[in-house]
Amino acid sequence: MEPDPTAADQGGIRARMTVPVLAFGGILMAVMQTVVAPLLPDLPRLTGASAGSVSWMVTATLLTGAVLTPVLGRAGDMYGKRRVLLIALALMTVGSVLCAMTSDIRLLIAARGLQGAAAAVVPLSISILRDELPPARTGSAVALMSSTVGIGAALGLPLAAIIVQYANWHVMFWATSGLGALGLALAWWAVRESPVRSPGRFDTPGALGLAAGLVCLLLGVSQGGQWGWTSPGILGLFAGCVLIMALWWRQQLRAERPLVDLRLASRPGVALPHLAALLAGFAFYANSLVTAQLVQAPTATGYGLGLSIVGSGLCLLPSGIIMLLFSPVSARISAARGARVTLALGALVIALGYVLRIADSRALWAVILGAAVVSTGTTLCYSALPTLILRAVPGDQTASANGVNVLMRTIGQAVCSAAVAAVLVHHTMPLGGQPVPTLHGYLLAFVMAGTVALIACAVALAVPADPGRPGTRAGSSADGGGTLVGASAAGSGTSERTDGPAGTDGKAREGA
Fold it and tell me: Across residues 168-197, what is the average pLDDT?
């Protein structure tokens, strides 16, 4: 029977749309995480809740995102990455609809928790790209996917601020609900299910143990400033985290099919990129966290620009555009010099950006320039990290390994938020009867973030050299190219060399 040319054309269109659709999903995830920021000062009045209760709209998203990212990543490796991706996008959209329909703070917090599931979109998408695309396209596609985190954050803040300023705050959530539904429909249409699977039963005890440990850690970090770092509650959370994670580590080593393969994760080629992700997440987050506060500070402080929420959001917009433009550049650097060089260079550029911030944080142009340089470095780092992970793990563990890498970024951002808050609280001056941060406090935050970026640079240089580069073991795979598959973390000692995406015959999938 003759093949249907119409069906073939549709298949080709769907294949060409896979990368844009997945990138749109990543941008949506970042937008969902940031849109609530302009609302926080007014939510106590709008909902009748206390400021402490309102802060849980951020904390709930952070906690569920951190817990579900590695869990959904492992589920994607086992049951299908496309299937789990659609579930994550659906939970994100349902959470947005619930936020649009209620003013009850309890329902709002629960709905924001559902939106946290979207944090798994990026690692799942990166794994799909590895499975679906030919090697020549993988590097640039992964770089774009990684950059969507910054692009979405830069776009989401001014968009939300404009809607909040000129319309009812529920309109913002209706808008994100429509975008979420669009992203879900496009993913269902354009993304094909990957054939690469990891067989076995899902590690439910491991998932519960990791969830409990992360909740204790991130709850302690995020609430330490309010409850007091030496309060019994915070100390109890940290002690509980240490105990739970010790038991979880032991359970993972004994499990037949662990949630996180610790033997694989402890190898330098995987462990060091995870550490670099934590440090890069810390260094990156200080930029957006501090910039928004600094430019909104009253002019009476002597350094503040007195900008509105919309104005402060627009200050970060160039950073998002830069991340979009530099993602292919970072892919070319990785292809030419290796991903670890890209990671080290990115961390160095982040540190340079903070040097500019320290040199001048009073003029608007200097603030925008410094923030843009930090974003450039972040693009290089975030594009290199998944590439390093992809070349270091077997094809049936890419989603879970990238999920852990994104989790490390999240932990770094949470620690950065707590550290910056601690610095600013201890460096204040009275203004209108209220304490406000001093310029010295902001500069100390920049020094802290820049120092962490330099440490990330050193960690990047310690990552084992890219296989296939001059001076490395012959026959190894190169970044974004061939992969080593068939070797489990426990290690049978054998591997099968392929020249294409893991689980394929080395040729591009039809229509990819």
Answer: 90
Two tokens at 408?
């490390």
CA distance 387 to 409: 15
Give the mean model confidence (pLDDT) for residues 258-262: 89
Beta bridge partners, 435, equal 430
Q: Is the pTM of this model over 0.90?
A: no
pLDDT over 70 at 492, yes or no: no
Q: Find, among 378, 388, 353, 392, the residue nearest to 280 by Cα.
A: 378
| Complete DSSP assignment for 421-459 | HHHHHTSEEEETTEEEE-HHHHHHHHHHHHHHHHHHHHH
Over 80: is that where the pLDDT of 11 sits?
Answer: no
What are the pLDDT digits (tens) for 439-460?
A: 999 999 999 999 999 999 999 9
Segment 332-351 mean pLDDT: 93
Which residue bears the tokens 């430019």?
A: 295
- CB-hemisphere CA count at 13 Å for 159? 21
Name residues whose C-beta falls within 8 Å of residue 230's C-beta, 6 or more positions apart in sequence. Answer: none
Q: Tokens at residue 434, please? A: 């209220």
| Phi, psi (degrees; rounded to nearest 5) at 209 | -65, -45
Confidence class of residue 468 from pLDDT cuts 50, 70 and 90? low
Handedness of CA 203, 209, 213, 215 (dihedral sign): positive
The pLDDT tens digits for 142-151 are 888 888 877 8
Helix axes 5-34, 169-190, angle to 10 degrees: 150
**Chain position carrying tokens 């930090």:** 374
Under a CB-based contact definition with an 8 Å cutoff, are residues 357 and 456 in contact?
A: no
Cα dihedral angle (128, 382, 409, 123), rounded to 10 degrees?
Answer: 0
Provide, for the chain, the percentages of residues in helix, strand and coil under a 3-state DSSP scheme, each rounded to the nearest 5: 75, 5, 20
As a whole number of angstroms, the distance between CA 45 and CA 54 comes to 10
Please determine, for residue 511, whether its predicted confidence score (pLDDT) is greater than 50.
no
Residue with tokens 């550490």: 275
Q: Which structure tokens are listed for 130? A: 């590895």
* Three-class SS of 234-283: HHHHHHHHHHHHHHHHHHHHHCCCCCCCHHHHCCHHHHHHHHHHHHHHHH
Tokens 């569920």 — which residue? 64
Whole-angstrom CA distances from 210 to 12, 79, 207, 247, 459 are: 41, 20, 5, 10, 25
The closest of 273, 332, 322 to 137, measured between CA atoms, is 332
Q: What is the 3-state secondary structure (H, E, C) of 310-364?
A: HHHHHHHHHHHHHHHHHHHHHHHHHHHHCHHHHHHHHHHHHHHHHHHHHHCCCCH
